[in-house]
Amino acid sequence: MKLNILYEDQDIIVVEKPVGIESQSARSFEPDMVSEVKKHINTLSPKNNDPYVAVIHRLDKPVGGIMVYAKNKESANALSRQVSDHKMEKHYYAVLCGKPVDNFGEYVDYLWKDGKNNISKIVEKGINGAKLAKLKYKLLETINLDNQELSLVEIELETGRHHQIRVQFAGHGTPLWGDRKYNQQLQPGMNRGNVALCACRLGFVHPKTGKKLEFSIKPQEHIFSEFSQFS
After folding, report:
1. How far apart are CA 153 and CA 48, in angstroms?
2. 78 by DSSP, 3-state: which?
3. Could you give the C-alpha distances from 96 to 50, 91, 130, in angstroms and in order?
4. Is 60 a catalytic residue?
């Protein structure tokens, strides 16, 4: 696996996580992003001890996109504060099955994680363990593909809950294309790829210099190429 490095210095490294790779240390022999980043650091500057690599935020295994990792504890603490204070800007592209009611919208729900089955559900506010989940979306384009209406949306994630985007859009009637976990409408023709979700843009303040950094990529999943913005 070759890392696509978007930025690196002595404090942080910004990389593109491929689809199908764990964003944190995996419990199997499969590759994961933390291990790959450590290999890269060791290649540049071999040391006897294990390089420090801190996970700041996560992406689901079937989702690709931009991630930042910290290379020391001070940077990890500073970046984690930006996440907890909702100051790290995380934007996604997604392909939905159907069309949202509004061209611009905000979803505010409470999610409960079922760790045993590795799923999350929208629940009432007072449920024990329920956490607030907020996102904003903008409809970019709607097409008809194989007699099915599909919509391209850009999403600004305000909180980072387990499977949040996938759960909220499914709960509001427009599940993500290719999402085998939350899309109950899957048809044979829709199984041609992975879940159509990409962490396309990431913005944050550098933990040491204080400079605002922004990075962006285009989604690789082929379904995005059906839309004029990526064709």
Report:
1. 46
2. helix
3. 42, 16, 25
4. yes
Give the containing element (helix H, strand E) for 43.
helix 33-44
106, 134 Cβ separation under 8 angstroms: yes
pLDDT tens string 66-119: 999 999 999 999 999 999 999 999 999 999 999 999 999 999 999 999 989 999
Dihedral sign for Cα atoms in the order 216, 220, 225, 226: negative
Distances (CA, A) of 200 to 29, 32, 80, 148: 28, 20, 20, 25
Residue 30 banded pLDDT, cuts 50, 70, 90: confident
Reference 226, options 137, 104, 144; nearest CA is: 144
Cα distance between residue 195 and residue 201, in whole Å: 18
* Candidate list 9, 32, 60, 109, residue with the active-site label: 60
Here the tokens at position 131 are 């956490």
**H or E element, residue 170:** helix 164-171
